Amino acid sequence: MFRMSILFVSLLALTACVSNGTHNELKDKYASLEQQHQEATNKINELETIIAKLEQDLGKASANKKSMANSIQHMKEALQAESQRKREIEKRLAAFRRLIQKVKKLTDAGDLSIQIKDGRMVVVLPSDVLFKSGSASLSSKGTETIQIVGAGLAEIPEKQFQIEG
């Protein structure tokens, strides 16, 4: 029985042992897999760094996009306001041209002049056109001139006029 025990232990020892060549082969495979694992871990770390940078860049781009959208909106509003001002200026200019056309005969004769001062239209009527020398009453030419100017000014809607003398 003792022999059998030794035989059994010997067989058991033989089955548990691997040859030296197999052991070295498995050791080399393990080292190779360990190296591949380390390379994969390094690559994952590199990719995680790249992803973090891309996420940061995406955040900046998103903020820039929002800022640009706000800037575009402000520009649109400013452009709209400028367009409105331009329309108002063109409207005033058209009214100015119509008035000049109405009183062209008077301006050509020197009985009237139109000027722009501080953005306002100033109609100047010389006193010798309106009144005879030494008189406080309007002359017939003065009455006619005031009627022509008044008719021209009446065609300019939504404006207030200041008369000085």
List the keywords.
single chain, 165 residues, mainly alpha, two-stranded antiparallel sheet, 2 strands, 75% helix, rod-shaped
Structural features, described:
- The structure is a single chain.
- The protein has 165 residues and is mostly helical.
- It is built from 5 helices and 2 strands.
- A two-stranded antiparallel ribbon has the order 1-2.
- The protein is rod-shaped.
- The N and C termini lie far apart (148 Å).
- The mean pLDDT is 82.
**Strand arrangement across the biggest beta sheet:** 1-2
Please describe the biggest sheet, giving its number of strands, its sense, and whether it closes into a barrel.
Answer: 2 strands, antiparallel
Measured on Cα atoms, how large is the radius of gyration?
51 Å
**Order of helix and strand elements from N to C terminus:** HHHEEHH
The number of helical segments is 5
- Overall pLDDT, averaged? 82
Based on CA inertia axes, which overall geometry fits? rod-shaped
Kindly report how far apart the N and C termini lie.
Answer: 148 Å
Low-confidence stretches at least 5 residues in length (pLDDT < 50)? none
Proportion of strand residues:
5-15%
User: Percentage of helical residues?
Assistant: over 70%
Q: What is the β-strand count?
A: 2
Quaternary class: single chain
Sheet/helix structural class: mainly alpha
Layout of secondary structure:
Elements: H1 2-16, H2 20-102, H3 104-109, E1 113-117, E2 120-124, H4 127-130, H5 140-154
Antiparallel strand pairs: 1-2
